[in-house]
Amino acid sequence: MAFGSITKSAVTRRLLIILVIVEIIFIIIGLMAIEVSHTESFRFHDSFVQTFPHREWRNKTRKQILAWTSFWFTDYWCDMSIKGEPGRCNDRCELTRDKSRVAESDAVVFHFPDVLPWSTLPPRTPDQVWVLYNLEPPPRQIWYTGGTPWRNIYNWTMSYRKDSTIFVRPYHGYEPLSEEEKIKVKQENKNFAEGRYKIAIATVSDCYDDARRYKYTHQLMKYIDIDIYGSCGNKECPQWKPECENIHKKYKFQLAFENAYCKDYITEKYWEAHMRKIIPVVNWKTDPKGLVFPNSYINIWDFPDMKSVAEYMQKVANNDTLYNSYFDWTKEFKMNCHCGCHWCVLCDALFNTTIPAQVVIDPMQWAVSMDTCKMWSVATFLWRIVERLLFDIGLA
């Protein structure tokens, strides 16, 4: 009797959950219809950047850069100083947050997430460059949905996208080793598999991500052991704390899945794996050539299914020679940090006379339509939550 009562109660709860989910789905469909209608209303440009034959030019030996907007809604812009090789940009550019100096500034920088529809724009001069700066992909930008009140205003884009006017790396990059460094690496002849006796680790805090990482993580776990840390897992590991770093030393692979399939967007997940000398397992759907170390990762989309991925990971884990081949890049390259706000890169660009006069016709469409991932919206956000709930109760 009690068993029957419990079963009936469980069924009732599940039916209520399903009814709520169905109602939410209808709301989402309505929101998506509104958003599609809104999007189609301004999708009429063949190109999002228009160039002009003549560019106004200030012949100055020292350029001034003005950070006009806030940075993540604070007055603190990362690294308000010019850093670089002496003579390269240290003494060629000056940074300021003083808006009264806008007329004398050569570049005015706007942080895209801080440009709101009601933002006040400064007066401008023809020889001034307005730069739209952005390091976050569309799924992480809720204000992308606020319309496009900034058409034909900005001249340059400065972002993680390789098709930007100025391409910058949000996290890390790499550069060739010196000859002395190559000799040292060769002498060390390190075995990167040594001391690593566990298969895979993952640290996940976004449980409702756009890429649905939980689905293929769950599939992989059918074939290999994966320890999941973070708010989406059942294990805790304070990031970059000594005890956490010691935990990572046990593993041969780190799941470095991105939370969205965005063009050219390589986050800290990949770089952190290599900082720890663990092979990253990634989920990139576009070619990252030139953005990451060659032959330095395992991409799940290079395999027909997750079972094949797991079998290959096991093969690599059991073969030290094969495992170490994923670190052959250490014989030729080293990681460097592209931290801060990339002021030196912008400074160099201001002295580059080959960049034509141009205007970004529609920055929102450039950021979204030219990308490979979806823009943030209420509908997509709610659907991600619903899809995860359906997955957790075994209905998706």
Write the layout of secondary structure elements.
Elements: H1 2-40, E1 49-52, E2 63-67, E3 93-96, E4 107-111, E5 129-134, E6 156-159, E7 166-167, E8 172-176, H2 179-188, E9 198-203, H3 213-220, E10 226-229, H4 242-248, E11 251-255, H5 268-275, E12 279-282, E13 298-299, H6 306-317, H7 320-325, E14 333-337, H8 343-350, E15 357-360, H9 363-368, H10 378-392
Parallel strand pairs: 2-3, 2-4, 4-5, 5-6, 6-7, 9-10, 9-11, 11-12, 12-13
Antiparallel strand pairs: 1-15, 8-14
Helix pairs in contact: 1-10
What does the model show?
The protein is an alpha/beta fold and 396 residues long. It has three domains: 2-42 and 380-392; 49-170 and 339-372, no CATH class; 176-337, Glycosyl transferase family 10, C-terminal domain (Rossmann fold, 3-Layer(aba) Sandwich). It has ten helices and 15 strands. The protein has a six-stranded parallel sheet, covered by helices on one side. Helix 1 (2-40) packs antiparallel against helix 10 (378-392).
